[in-house]
Amino acid sequence: MAGEKGRRPTPRRRGTGGAARATGAARASAKPRVAKAPKVARAPKVAKAAKAAPKVAKPAAKAAPARSVTRPSERRAQHQRAGVLRVVAIAVGGLLALALVVVVALFALRNSSLFAITSIEFDPTEHVSAEDVQSLAQVPEGATLLNVDTDQIEESLRKNPWVASASFARVPPGTLKITIEEQQPAALVLMSSGTVAWYLSEENTWIEPTRVEAAEGQSVNDAALAIAEACGCLLVTDVPSTVDPEPGAPATDEVLDAVRQFQEGFSDDFASQVVCYSVPSTENVSCVLASGVEISLGTPTEISLKESIVRGYLDQSEGRLVRINVRVTSSPAFREIDSSNVQPGEGVSSSEESGE
What we know:
The chain is an alpha/beta fold. It has helices at about 1-5, 15-30, 50, 70-110, 130-135, 150-155, 220-230, 255-265, 270, 305-315, and strands spanning about 120, 165-170, 175-180, 185-190, 195-200, 205-210, 235-240, 275-280, 285-290, 295-300, 320-325, 335. About 35% of the residues lie in helices and about 20% in strands.
């Protein structure tokens, strides 16, 4: 045994390596094999929902802006526009600054004694005198051209019933000019109880009374008619005493309303021929034309028909002066008057008319 321990191991030959590997392989093959798990069959692939659903068109991606090439002329135009805008901005700013300065200056001078009102100028009208304006204007003490309340002055001036409106002009340093527009009279109303007539405005308000003075051999009606014609307005006579005018008050009387109804109901051409109405009552209205023809109208009904009948009679008269009665349109009447001395407003009584 000792000898065996001192013996060196005999080196292996190269040829024996294959056997050793074979032996290793045999050992490896001798290990028990583990059986592989059987492959599980895969479920058939389900079509993706995205494929089954209709495709939604996606918004087209914004194309990258093409790089523009600015021409020299376009650059010059852009610079010019920018320059113009700068000039405009500077000009606007200057105007705003100037306006602010003006406002501040006006506010500072508003109560300045430099513009204190020292005189009032007024050109008298036919019915409004300088004394009337001086007494009614009532310019407050210390008022200036910049702070004077012209609306309040106009309201005071309208206390005169002839004043329809007023306009004002400021003349530095201290003159206030006033221009009056008068009321236009639509009618001169002569009362039956005397020689006093009242002017009635186009706004149907009483203006003021005037006395009618007849010349020798002239009737009051004729004198009043001359005044009315000078003013370019109607004459209304025989107005009952129940009518009580007041300056500036509206005329609401029935007899005057009857006159308005006839004037508005007649055609413009025919209404312009009427120079005078007589209205002792609403049932007994009559008128006189510029030609001197007197017409009994009665109540303000069937106005167009009454005008048509009158026109027919006038056409038949061949220029001869007549009196016509159309108070009852179913039985009108007329009378020719063979006289060259009959004046507007005169005529014959209804009892003398034919057909009555």
